[in-house]
Each structure stands twice: as C-alpha cells, then as structure tokens.
Design a protein that fits this description.
68% helix; mainly alpha; binds S-adenosylmethionine; 271 residues; transmembrane; 10 helices
C-alpha cells in the first residue's frame, strides 16, 4: 500500500511529461483507489501525492514554453526547474527509504513559514528588477552561469547524501536511537559530516545567484547559515549520545560542514 504512494509521485511526473488526456483518467483512477482504500487523512492521499508532482512538473514545463529566452527568462525557467527537482526528489528518496511515513509533507513544500516566505520574496525581487530602468544591470550571464554551477553541486550533494545514508536519513532529527540506525561515514559523509545540509545551503544560495537576486543571495546566505548552525548543533548532540566515541573519532577526521572552511558555522567543534 505504501509503495503506491511512492509510485503516485512517479506517475505525476510521467503524466506531466507526456501531457495527455490520459492524465485525467489516471488521476481519477488514483482518486477511486483512495476512496476504496478509505485513507484516514488527506496527507496520505495518493491523488494529492500524484497531483503535487504533476503540478510542479507542469508549472516548470509552462515556464519553459512561455518565458522568453533572455537572461531573466532563462534564469526564471531554471529556478522553476530547480524547485521542481528539489521537492520531487525529496519525496522520491524519502518515500523509497521510509515508505510507511510518506505523505504530502515529505515534499517539504510546507515545512516552515520562513521557507515559504523566502520563496515568495525571491520571486518578488526577481519581478521588481523587471520594472526598474536598465534591468540588464541585475540580470547577467556570468551570475547565471555561476548560479547554475552552485545549484548543480547543491543538488548533487543533497540527493547523493540522502541516497548514501539510506534509511538512516530522516527529515526530522531523531531523538532516540533506532536499533537499525548505523553511523554513515563513507561516500558523501567522508567529505563532510552534513553533506545534505551543505547541498541544501548551496542549492538555496545558488538559486538566488542564478536569478541575479542580490538581496536574496545575501539574505539566503545569512539565514541558511544561521538555520544550519542551530540544527547541526542539536543534531550532533543527539549523534554523540547515539554513537559516543565512534562519532567523536569520525568528527576528528571529517570536516563539519564546508570542507576546508572549518569555522564556516558558529557551532562549537567536537573534539
Ligand atoms: C535530515 S537528516 C541530515 C543528515 C546529515 N546531517 C546531513 O546533512 O547529511 C537528519 C538525520 O540524519 C541522522 N544522521 C546525521 N548524520 C548521520 C550519520 N553520519 N550517520 C547516520 N545518521 C546520521 C540524524 O540522526 C538525524 O536523525
């Protein structure tokens, strides 16, 4: 049953790519399945899951179809694509490793008011620049290329780390150790102790550089750094409780967050 939810997200992506009337029948079929299986909450509805990835992919496609091929248009198209990749991949990886807890919020679309606000402000800053004289001052190809580079690395770290950690990775920080929880120290986790957070950080700042959003680039940099400082501080405290000396010796060998910049976050170092 849980696998159907994971599959629903895939179905949403596929039907938006092939974009045919079949989509209506498939979504209607999922709705029927939901009604027959009497799901207790809307959060766990396969129709909602399929519709969400369908909507994210369709908005991206519309962007690619109707936005111009100028610098601002391309940066906006890529921003939509990047948001779509981020949220759909969050759902797909997490529902694959934790099918029993897959639900609408696994897309992380509604994970905090601050995040929603930040995304809205980024669109507003992008739009305001169009209304002022000489918008080309802000939309430039160099920023676009640097942004794309940072965003690609961000996606690579975020998705790679989630797959690397497998079932040990959960969106919510675990307060008590599960029997199956093991310490991951290889692959991405050899580069730094928090590769998925590093990926998220690079992705969020990279998207704003890509858009040429000066205010949001600085704002996202400061707020994400602040957010991950607090989160990592607490997470490392729990990991020390779970794994003790194993975590201590891992932290001695591996950078905390940004490789080569050990003091990037204001989090106390474990030694
Ligand atoms: C949202 S994930 C973030 C993982 C990690 N901080 C990162 O950035 O890739 C949070 C969960 O991952 C677990 N976790 C973090 N680092 C881990 C590691 N090296 N091995 C196993 N589990 C880990 C924590 O216990 C927590 O419940």
């Amino acid at each position: 049953m849980e696998r159907i939810l994971c599959l629903s997200s895939f179905i949403g992506v596929i039907i938006s790519i092939f974009n045919s009337y079949l989509a209506i029948f498939i979504l209607a079929g999922l709705l029927l399945f939901d009604l027959l299986s009497l799901k207790p909450t809307i959060e766990k509805s396969s129709t909602l899951i399929a519709f969400t990835s369908f909507a994210l992919c369709t908005i991206t496609q519309l962007g690619f179809e109707y936005l111009p091929d100028s610098c601002w248009g391309i940066s906006l198209k890529l921003y939509l694509l990047s948001l779509c990749i981020f949220h759909v991949s969050e759902f797909l990886t997490q529902s694959y490793f934790h099918p029993q807890s897959a639900k609408f919020s696994t897309y992380l679309l509604n994970h905090s008011r601050e995040y929603e606000l930040a995304i809205i402000i980024s669109f507003i800053e992008h739009a305001i620049k169009l209304a002022i004289p000489f918008p080309e001052m802000f939309y430039n190809w160099l920023a676009l290329c640097i942004g794309i580079f940072v965003v690609v690395i961000g996606h690579f770290f975020r998705i790679g780390a989630e797959i690397n950690a497998g079932s040990n990775f959960t969106h919510l920080i675990q307060n008590s150790k599960k029997e199956t929880h093991t310490l991951v120290t290889s692959g991405f986790y050899k580069i730094c102790r928090h590769p998925s957070y590093l990926g998220w950080f690079l992705w969020s700042v990279g998207t704003q550089i890509m858009l040429g959003n000066i205010i949001c680039s600085i704002g996202f940099f400061i707020t994400s750094r602040q957010f991950f400082s607090g989160r990592i501080y607490y997470e490392e405290y729990t990991l020390l409780e779970f794994f003790g000396t194993e975590y201590l010796s891992y932290s001695k060998k591996t950078s905390q967050f940004m490789p080569f910049f050990d003091n990037f976050l204001n989090t106390p170092k474990i030694t």
